[in-house]
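Handout, page 2. Input:
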Amino acid sequence: MSTVQDVNPRVRGIRAPIEFSCQFKKRSILINTDVFFQSVKKPFKSVIDVSSGDPHKAGMPPISFIRQVMAVCLYPELLKEKSLPLDVRQRAQKLLDMCSGGSVGSYSTTSGGLPQVQKSISEFITRRDGGVPSHPEDIILTTGLQKSFDVVCFLVFLNLLTSGEGKTQTGVLTPMPCPHTLPMLLDMTGLALVPYRLFEEQGWAVNLDELHRALEAGRVHCEPKAIYISNPGKPTGEQPIVGTSCTAFDLFYIRFHFSLFLLIVYGQDKEFISYKKVLSEMGKTYAETMELVSFHSISTAHIGEGGLRGGYMEVINIDPAVKKYLTVISSASVLPQLALELSVNPPRPEDSSYNSYTQEIHHIEDTLSQNAKRACEFLNRVEGMSCQPSMAGLFLYPRVHLPPHIVEEAKRLEVKADVLYCQRLLREEGICVGAGCENGQEDKNYHIRLCILTPPSTLEEILARLRSFHHRLLEKLA
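Output:
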């Protein structure tokens, strides 16, 4: 029988947030049943899971136009269904014509993605960036954001950017806090995580001196060759180059001077600023030589179709041979590619679905904006909590003051104190949130992560239960 010792040492070294998350999800499902409480009455009606950026799980409805078109693509008999809007049926037919054999069940004939979808995405990026050209051959479609980043990490690991061990191991400058799956991906691909701190008191700002410090510290044990930036920040909701002392120009200068590979993850936010556009304005020395990879996903924000696992990369100034390798190993599924096509080519004013689509998008935007403001103000009024405003993104990341008895109990149980807080919150109030340690928080300031793209009534329920639980903890201290 195989034992743990037979497992690849690099696999055994993968850090545990994903394991904690899986166990937590299973517990949230179990707690939602009366079996968990046996003869004791459950103290809440149902579990509300806001630990991940999954708006549909949190109660937000999907976009009707996208679901209708996808339904027709999956069951083409609906092309005859007159109750569906005409533009829905026309768009579905157009998408089916893109597919080999006219079916979403056929294999895609190209690895990097359907050519028509690549073209649509490049045209969308060109519009987004005010005319800065994007080229279809630079667009690589993938099976989601996590997969696409994994592909690039794998690229680095395979020595295409020169990896090694010990002091020659390739390092990635990573913001702290960071997306909770990122450390796991770096571990899986043999890359060293080089942390740089975001400054909470300054709205989770990026600091130029801190980046220099992280670089020097990283060089003691590895070779930093890439810097990871999330725009907006996840889970902190900051926009890294808005209102901070470290601008996009600073980041590019750092990247150029220290030969760093720039990895950017884009979200949808209120005041989108494109790193690619900034790069194009920096002159040929930078614009034509600096390597930049941008990622985007349909999992969050307006579309929220996380289950489809669709995303794309735009690769700038990458060696064609390397780009070819990326294309070969990406191999995106057909269905999420069609959803991506719909996301970058929504209904136009002359289309019958335009009004309903626009109303639904505006509803999502308004809900997210109002929820962010409401939750931040609420949490800042709760004793023992503080929260920085979220400029964009789906999460709030409030700081939580934990009473000494919780910290001591966590030590006794050999778990992180914020994990214990989240476990008790789930058991006592049925609210599932993420623990700050999942996002790389190693200091003595404890945080929790919660998705705020929920129906407003659900958000009020979450906030009320969270306040009730936190007050009970503080009362035990009194």
